[in-house]
Amino acid sequence: MAVATYCLVAIDCPDPAALAGFYQKVLGGEVTHDNDRWYDLRVPGGARLAFQLAPDHRPPEWPRADRNSQQEHLDFEVTDMDAAQREVLALGATPLDVDDDGGKRGFRVFADPAGHPFCLCDEG
Hints:
- By secondary structure, this protein is α/β, with parallel strands linked by helices.
- The chain contains 2 helices and 8 strands.
- A 4-stranded mixed beta sheet has the order 1-4-3-2, with helices on one face. Strands 5-8-7-6 form a 4-stranded mixed beta sheet, with helices on one face.
């Protein structure tokens, strides 16, 4: 028997409205908020991401683990890696590690506008 039920992933950032908007454009869904410190994104399928104001937020240094590690990252499956890469870059993502060895590795790493790493992963 489970001890708990999954609720959400909360992501610290300097501008919750902007980061919620970025992920809404990547994933779809609806953004809501009760105040300027916390925004929710309910994505199709029911998962929930939250974006919390952290005025002194420092982006993690991917892929370092010895200081200021990545802390977390999100993975998103895509059907067309090249098209998805073009779209997230147009939305403001930064490439961190996009050499997927001609598709053999199966993922590419980016940072969102607040500096959090996320991966686009081959669906197959």
